[in-house]
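User: Can you help me understand a structure? I only have the sequence.
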Amino acid sequence: MNALVSKIIDAHGGLQQWRKFSSLRARLNQGGALWTLKGHPTTLSVTTVTVDLRREWASHSPFGPEAMLSSFEPGRVALSNADGEVLEELLDPRSTFAGHTLETPWNELQLAYFAGCAMWTYLNMPFLLAHEGVEAEELPDWSENGETWHRLKITFPADILSHSAVQTIYFDDAGLLKRHDYDVEIAGGTPGAHYISGYIDVQGIKIPTSRRIYPRQADGRSLPEPLVVSIELSDIVLT
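Assistant: Let's start by predicting it. Here is the structure, written out as tokens:
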């Protein structure tokens, strides 16, 4: 494993501790301009998110005012009722975003796909870097708001579906993540700068509770507005 990857993972609690668990559940509060832009201003504003730590799967409950349950995996997304009855499903969901731009609205299944894919990535980082086939390349340091952060360019293998195959993580001297950049392929490749803060210790794992995502410019600098997505996590449990 890349030495810097090892440092980052160790700073967040280490692989040995992480591998004691198979799922993460948290109370989720979300805001930002994206949800209204996509036609779902309050569907996932307050919900509970659960992600698998060993395979790519995530769920939100309740999903919308009908209190549905979503199920995301790379090749399928579905919405079920409280009794577990599948109400809608979509196979090969990523293909349905072809030709989308940032302004293209999503249906509920597409929203479930995006939210599941995003939260699975966020809540499995940085331990996802230890996945077989993930490549890490050191980039020059980055200065922002009077701080200097180290950077790694991350390339995911084909069996991991995320916002984009190539992403960049920023971390401080202690190895804690500060920022995470990617291009949202299913929204026309929209570039995002994702800021990470509010670390707490949960069962021996360092987990950030606050995230803010802003537009990213061509020079790598973020714009102060609009706030694209805000994420607040609480009641985090590893099982």
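Now, to help you interpret it: Helices lie at 3-11, 15-18, 33-37, 108-124. Residues 3-238 form a domain with the outer membrane lipoprotein receptor (LolB), chain A fold (CATH 2.50.20.10). Let me know which part you'd like to focus on.
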